[in-house]
Amino acid sequence: MSEVALESDRFFEHVPVMLQETVDVLVHKPDGVYIDATLGGAGHTLEIIKRLSADGVLYGIDQDREAIQAAKEAVGIEPRFHAVQGNFGYIDQLIPLELHGKVDGILFDLGVSTHQIKEP
Fold first, then answer.
1. Which of helix, strand or coil describes residue 117?
2. What is the DSSP letter of 88?
3. Fewest CB within 10 A of the end CB: N or C in the chain?
């Protein structure tokens, strides 16, 4: 299980379902550009990063400030990863204009987390 502690002692816990299978299909170009549109605690992001070459790029989007912080802590210093706070409905405004039309894959892990219910 992936657990990321925050300074506030809250946790983002998530066990991605079919993690390997999902990322196998998503990451077809190690030097590609990918988006995890539902970043959360970075469960999928950590696996995607493992599959990227030095030239690969991953943008992680979440509208929850605490999720962004948890993901940054989970990923650590990683130049291929860019965490962006915002709603994925505005994805075209959240990624650099020069990447429009060049994204190789986008992951949406839709659902509601326990954290979101406890902390509206």
1. helix
2. G
3. C
- Please, which residues bridge with residue 105 across strands? 34
Compute the distance between CA of residue 60 and CA of residue 68 in angstroms, rounded to an integer. Answer: 8
Two structure tokens written together for 18:
């079919």
Summarised one tens digit per residue, pLDDT across range 44-74 is: 999 999 999 999 999 999 999 999 999 999 9
How many whole angstroms separate alpha carbon 65 and alpha carbon 67?
5
Express each pLDDT in 70-89 by its tens digit: 999 999 999 999 999 999 99
Can you tell me the distance from the alpha carbon of 120 to that of 53, in angstroms, rounded to the nearest whole number?
37
Read off φ and ψ for residue 85, nearest 5 degrees.
Answer: -90, 125
C-alpha 54/C-alpha 113 separation (Å) is 32
Beta strands in the chain (DSSP E): 2-5, 11-14, 33-36, 57-62, 81-85, 105-107
Q: Which of 54, 11, 58 is nearest to 39 (CA)?
A: 58
Fold designation for 2-110: Rossmann fold (3.40.50)
